[in-house]
Amino acid sequence: MLHLIACNMHNEWVVVSLKLVVWTAADGLRHAMGSFPPKAPQGKGKADAASSKAQSSKKDGAGKAKKKKWSKGKQKEKLNAAVFFDKNLYEKLKKEVPSYKLITPSIISERMRCNVSMARRAIADLESKGMIRAIAKHASQCIYTRALAGAE
Question: What pTM value is reported for the model?
């Protein structure tokens, strides 16, 4: 038994007792701090032999465990959004958007691949022509739907 006087994290002096065990083996001296002698097999028969074989194959093939690499996170793909209406895009907008059940600037921007500011202008244009009608208008979000022929 070995006794040491040491200072802990709280600046208190404490007595630490260490027990150093040494044993002899066929290949020389080993200390308890390093490795322990191998366990003797208890011999349960074929099942034990199969499990030990599986463990040894895992040890041989596995090697050292690799350190986990952190992912950069999921990033949304950046779209090349149009900033001006050309003739083709405007015709496509007038043809398709009035048939949507739910119309918002973000939906038009996503489907037509244009800026949200362009989508807001297009919605105002379509509403003035009577092709769509407003369901809810708010400063942050406006929701529209298709204008039915017999309604109003």
Answer: 0.48
Q: Is residue 94 within 8 Å of residue 126, measured between CB atoms?
A: yes
How far apart, in whole angstroms, are the C-alpha atoms of residue 136 and residue 123? 13
More confident residue, 67 or 25: 67
Please tell me the distance from the alpha carbon of residue 69 to that of residue 92, in angstroms, as a whole number. Answer: 45
Q: Count Cα atoms within 13 angstroms, Cβ side, for 82.
A: 17
Tokens, residue 65: 């465990």
Distance CA 49, CA 44 (A): 8
Nearest by Cα to 117 from 125, 107, 109: 109
- Confidence at residue 134, expressed as pLDDT on a 0 to 100 scale: 93
